[in-house]
Amino acid sequence: MKTMLSIISNALCRMTGRNAGAQTVSEGARVVVSRSFADFTPQATFDIKKCDLHQLEEGPPLKAELTRDQGLQYYRTMQTVRRMELKADQLYKQKIIRGFCHLYDGQEACAAGIEASINPTDHLITAYRAHGYTYTRGVSIKEILAELTGRKGGVAKGKGGSMHMYAPHFYGGNGIVGAQVPLGAGIALACQYQGNNQLCVTLYGDGAANQGQLFESFNMAALWKLPCIFICENNKYGMGTSVERASASIDYYKRGDFIPGIRVDGMDVLCVREATKFAADHCRSGKGPIVMELQTYRYHGHSMSDPGVSYRTREEIQEVRTKSDPISMLKERMLSNNMASVEEFKEIDVDIRKQVEEAAQFATIGSRAAAGGSLQPHLLQQPAAGGPRDEPLVQTQVCQLDLNPNLQIHSDPDR
Amino acid sequence: MAAAARFFSRRANFKLSLSAVGTGAHSSFGAALLKPSPNCNSRTKTQRRHAAHFTFQPDPVPTQYGEWFIFGEDVAFGGVFRCTVGLRDKYGKDRVFNTPLCEQGIVGFGIGAAVAGATAIAEIQFADYIYPAFDQIVNEAAKYRYRSGNLFDCGSLTIRAPWGCVGHGSLYHSQSPEAFFAHCPGIKVVIPRSPVQAKGLLLSCIADKNPCIFFEPKILYRAAVEQVPEEPYTIPLSQAEILQEGSDVTLVTWGTQIHVMKEVAAMAQEKLGVSCEVIDLQTILPWDTETICKSVVKTGRLLISHEAPITGGFAAEISSTVQEECFLNLEAPISRVCGYDTPFPHIFEPFYIPDKWKCFEAIKKMINY
């Protein structure tokens, strides 16, 4: 009996790749085998924070169920976004990424939680802090990093850069603050018109919350009962300006006035998931739009040119990191409920690091976005304007030595 | 007065050093023009590279512009380009304050304040963000005096915005929207090429009795270095400046592109023996038709260049007027070397901008026409 059980336990351990240790104990008919996957709690229920409500009788539930698989998946998603952003930070400092780069680390629970509660066929649009959503909406790490470095393998063929990444049902990636909100309302209108039971998640920040076009969108969405979830990712700072100094009312979930609103703890992926589910049901049942405020935090500055410490203290950042980090919170929850092991998380971390490293390699050595005829892809078959006439400037400017074949160009130290 | 340029006290030849636009390469130019004020004293002061050339002057000069105040996104701590550093400490938070993120609100607010008599200086963080305020500028500010029969006006409004390509700005931090506003009677559009010009033109804009938009080439915030007189002085608006006299080709441009044109003129002289007259338009609206036309009558050839896309760009307006006035004097078709008709690209910027090679090529064509 004992031998058979130990054989089985060994077999199980081989399957899961785990080290069984020598913990097979036989007490009569009972055998305890440690550290096999069958040992983990498959599902647990967690208390989540109550959401503040505006114009709503009932809100999202106060408990969330989490299965082991879901937990590991959310962990993986958030950790991937975190690692990817940190890698982007590194590449930017090495000047491999240039231009603009707005990092999302600290806010991963928002992207992960939202994606967990909507369908892949639903639509999503956000502003410029978009790398996290690009990933959750299905773009690979390779394509994201290659886009940041301006390579052909990037999701926008290297032409968009950090702020302009797109995917099916993901509309970017928008540089002008607040401009994406009327777009989101328009996408919601299309969903309503086509009757496909899809909705649009339209994200904006606490800075954009003061833009006039938002209120125009709120009015239209409420008037026509568009299936639009307006989500304000309130990370307390609009670039360098704290919310108290920018907004007469910092209750962003109430800003929709006649639109119901929920204020959600944006550092808790389960809270975000439940709230977004609630909001999605609200929209899909034809009740019209809803506003959500996710209270979250970004560890980096506004962009890579902002150190992020001139308008807030390092202590504040540290405090959020230690007390409310979304990834740590999820991990602790799962560990304390025996839903996964420390080794398992470590393995996931190692795997993610490897993937991100490979993606960074791909992004660094890939060939650059193609010049030549693709300079004007939005115009078909048009000759390039803007220079001396009758010359196909686009084609001749791939390399500066080819630039003007009629010109005797000597080596020019300036260029 | 606010927004003065930094004063560097070096007795030696000062250089207008400028990174070649978009390429990051360095090229030095000869001494820029300086009209020295007689009291131009040179104290030894350490040159502090980290301060922007718009840093406020330490000695407060009694202003003849009335009580002014300056507002916009992030101006209180100094602004994203350090243009307003120190002003809040000097003049108080009533006069230097932040606005929320709302361009339409900022400009509308500025118009109202100006109409009520205050000198309002609104800052739009990047010219690319000015479009939400477009309606306010075009429909409210520009038409206020006209529609009220001169009962009201918002002449004491000045709108400042960083403008033009910067090497890594891509779509939304590199635009040159002067052509959109050139189409709007009732406002003035001004673009300086260097610190000396910037101070004089900005003070003129603030003093001017019409709403003015002052576009500041953002690449020059760090790149341009000049000796600037401490006292306030103005440079007249709607007057183009001839930087270099010539006899064969007239080169007209504004802002950052002036520095490119000066290089082109040198190249043309050296390689083709062509003598170029370089003119800085300075004021886009209303523009100095007389100087340009006089120059074209003399040379017979005109090249206009700007970063903005070619179709509908301001070069088209200049070209059209010049051919009306100087048709028989033209030796060759007027040439425009401008940005392509695409959004301002991220990674293709070096290909997009009207660099010296393109301009040189255009001159060659005109000479050989």
From TrEMBL, chain A:
Which Gene3D superfamilies has this protein been placed in?
3.40.50.970
| Recorded catalytic activity of this chain's protein | N(6)-[(R)-lipoyl]-L-lysyl-[protein] + pyruvate + H(+) = N(6)-[(R)-S(8)-acetyldihydrolipoyl]-L-lysyl-[protein] + CO2
Q: Which GO BP terms sit in this record?
A: glucose metabolic process; pyruvate decarboxylation to acetyl-CoA
Write down the EC number.
Answer: 1.2.4.1
**Per UniProt, what is one GO molecular function of this protein?**
pyruvate dehydrogenase (acetyl-transferring) activity
Task: Report the protein name in the record.
Answer: Pyruvate dehydrogenase E1 component subunit alpha
InterPro entries reported for this sequence: DH_E1 (IPR001017), PDH_E1_Alpha_Subunit (IPR050642), Pyrv_DH_E1_asu_subgrp-y (IPR017597), THDP-binding (IPR029061)
TrEMBL record, chain B:
This protein's GO CC annotations: mitochondrial matrix
List keywords of the entry alphabetically: Mitochondrion, Oxidoreductase, Transit peptide
Please state where this protein is localized: Mitochondrion matrix
Q: Which cofactor does it need?
A: thiamine diphosphate
Q: Is Ribonucleoprotein given among the entry's keywords?
A: no
**What main location does UniProt list?**
mitochondrion
Q: Tell me, how does this one assemble?
A: Heterotetramer of 2 alpha/BCKDHA and 2 beta chains/BCKDHB that forms the branched-chain alpha-keto acid decarboxylase (E1) component of the BCKD complex. The branched-chain alpha-ketoacid dehydrogenase is a large complex composed of three major building blocks E1, E2 and E3. It is organized around E2, a 24-meric cubic core composed of DBT, to which are associated 6 to 12 copies of E1, and approximately 6 copies of the dehydrogenase E3, a DLD dimer.
The free-text function statement in the UniProt record for this protein reads:
Together with BCKDHA forms the heterotetrameric E1 subunit of the mitochondrial branched-chain alpha-ketoacid dehydrogenase (BCKD) complex. The BCKD complex catalyzes the multi-step oxidative decarboxylation of alpha-ketoacids derived from the branched-chain amino-acids valine, leucine and isoleucine producing CO2 and acyl-CoA which is subsequently utilized to produce energy. The E1 subunit catalyzes the first step with the decarboxylation of the alpha-ketoacid forming an enzyme-product intermediate.
This chain's protein is named: 2-oxoisovalerate dehydrogenase subunit beta, mitochondrial
Source species: Amphiprion percula (Orange clownfish)
